[in-house]
Amino acid sequence: MSNRSDRQDGDREGGRSGKPLRGRAGRMKNGRGSGRASTGMVRLWGRHAVEAALKNPNRSHRKLWATREGVESLDGELPSDFPVEWAQPSDLARLVARDAPHQGLVLECSPLEDIFIDDVLDGDPSRPVVVLDQVTDPHNVGAIMRSAAAFNACAIVTQDRHAPPESGTLAKSASGALEVLPWVRVVNLARALEEIAEAGYWRIGLDGAAQSTLGEALPDGPVALVLGAEGDGMRHNIVQHCDAIAKLPISEAMESLNVSNAAAIALYAAATRG
């Protein structure tokens, strides 16, 4: 989950269960064409992102715009009184960011509640923390979330002002991970790293110029993996708050990896150590 510390008239056949899906129909209105939701709401799109949000009890849902094929792709049933407006794909395209792959589903819902760093640090050595220093591309952050959830990370930590907001683009890239991975947004990332250390985590910053490899730097106990923005890398103050700096042993033929790819490899290394 994330934070900021930011059908039709009558019955029809549908859903994988084959049971009727009921809902309230509405008239499709012109969209904003920007992916922006109503004030205080978040607009999500794509099957995995929408399905995960619908299943998340911590979400409050305002409305689903959908094609019939989109609803049929969902796992499970919608409540009988769920507000749905049936639409054509071209109508949905006006509700999302330009060229966004909505897959026949656009959901407007509340943002998730704030959570705090001491709520997610469980000290389990098999569950790393991922810390991102000013990684601002929502596609990269979403992809990192997906890998973090896949490798059972306990949380992702970002700075509030220098990270993308909760959005449809990020949720689509996260492929459902936004709803299950705790996302801690903090004002001061250096202070958050201090709290992570106080909880017993060994903080490893990834830098291609480091002398040691990640495999050599990984401890047996809890670990926090710290990654900086592509190009600039980690800021000096963040490097100073790491216990070790390590690199991935990539070929000299390549200068670097995309930050989301580097995160996935680091998470795999943490999950398979020992």
UniProtKB/TrEMBL annotation:
Residues 1-16 have a biased composition (Basic and acidic residues). One of its GO terms (biological process) is RNA processing. The keyword Transferase applies. CDD domains: SpoU-like_RlmB (cd18103). Keywords: Methyltransferase, Transferase. Coiled coil: none annotated. One of its GO terms (cellular component) is cytosol. It comes from the Bacteria. InterPro entries: Alpha/beta_knot_MTases, Ribosomal_eL30-like_sf, rRNA_MeTrfase_TrmH, SpoU_MeTrfase, SpoU_subst-bd, tRNA_m1G_MTases_N. SUPFAM superfamilies: alpha/beta knot (SSF75217), L30e-like (SSF55315). Residues 1-39 are annotated as: Disordered. One of its GO terms (molecular function) is RNA methyltransferase activity. It holds the Pfam family SpoU_methylase. Residues 19-30 have a biased composition (Basic residues). This is rRNA methyltransferase. It comes from Novosphingobium lindaniclasticum LE124.
